[in-house]
Amino acid sequence: MVVIEAEESVPIQKQSSSSSSSETPILNVGDASDGFETASERDVSDEEDQPTKSTAFQDALNDDELKQKALAQANDGKLEGNKLFGEGKYEEALLQYEVALQAAQDMPESVELRSICHSNRAVCFSKMGKYEDTIVECTKALELNPTYMKALVRRGEAHEKLEHFEEAIADTKKILELDPSNDQARKAIRRLEPLAAEKREKMKEEMLSKLKEMGNSVLGRFGMSVDNFKAIKDPNTGSYSISFQR
């Protein structure tokens, strides 16, 4: 059973104007008459300076409010995506996770939420049999959170589906680094290593076959083939020499 993550909702902190004004004074009026600076020594009076400070403070409040709204929208998108996934509506779930990602993009406060959305998108693609897309989404999740265990597991499974056995082994070994007691990962490596060796041997044979075809296409013009050439290994030096045979 594939579990979509729903537990990590980013908390939305409401900030009242009363608490903000008590913690951050807009202007320290008493400081202007402490003798360090007089009105005649200044180009701008205290009264002229006050609106500038107030505007900067208000801009900071507005920026924080916009961030909170964006995080709320991202949370809502993730939750709606989880709901749609549970109903088997994977295409619709993908769109909702994308909404969440767009709402929270480039916000340091949303790193965890974005990594979860990418991982959940990976599960959707996996359910749809789109394993290349699964790998892409898992990789994005791991760029945000390199120790994200579920993303490593999902990417390793997708690699195995595509017969990328070397890559699957690499992800599984990373899982063991993070969790040395993970017996399932250890068993997966034992299962994957023979498959990887078999694929390497098959690729080697295919490459040699292609090289032989290329050689024969050239040598055929001279009435010869690569079978006329034999590689003989020197038992003393381990080097090879080529002999021509008709």
Structural summary, described in words:
With 246 residues, the chain is mainly alpha-helical. The chain folds into 2 domains: 61-162, Serine Threonine Protein Phosphatase 5, Tetratricopeptide repeat; 164-246, no CATH class. It has helices spanning 17-23, 46-86, 90-103, 111-127, 131-144, 149-161, 165-178, 183-219, and strands at residues 229-233, 240-244. It has a two-stranded antiparallel sheet with strand order 1-2. The longest helix has 41 residues, at 46-86.
CATH superfamily of the largest domain: Tetratricopeptide repeat domain
Q: Please give the number of β-strands.
A: 2
Strand order of the largest sheet: 1-2
User: Mind telling me the C-alpha Rg?
Assistant: 32 Å
Number of helices: 8
Q: What is the distance, rounded to the nearest whole angstrom, between the alpha carbons of the first and last residues?
A: 63 Å
Q: Per DSSP, what share of the residues sits in E-state strands of 2 or more residues?
A: under 5%
- Spell out the helices and strands N to C: HHHHHHHHEE
**The number of domains:** 2
InterPro entries: TPR-like_helical_dom_sf (IPR011990), TPR_domain_protein (IPR052769), TPR_rpt (IPR019734)
Pfam families: TPR_1 (PF00515)
Region (Disordered): 1-61
Protein name: TPR_1 domain-containing protein/TPR_11 domain-containing protein
What descriptors fit this protein?
elongated; mainly alpha; Serine Threonine Protein Phosphatase 5, Tetratricopeptide repeat; two-stranded antiparallel ribbon; TPR_rpt; single chain; 246 residues; 64% helix; 8 helices
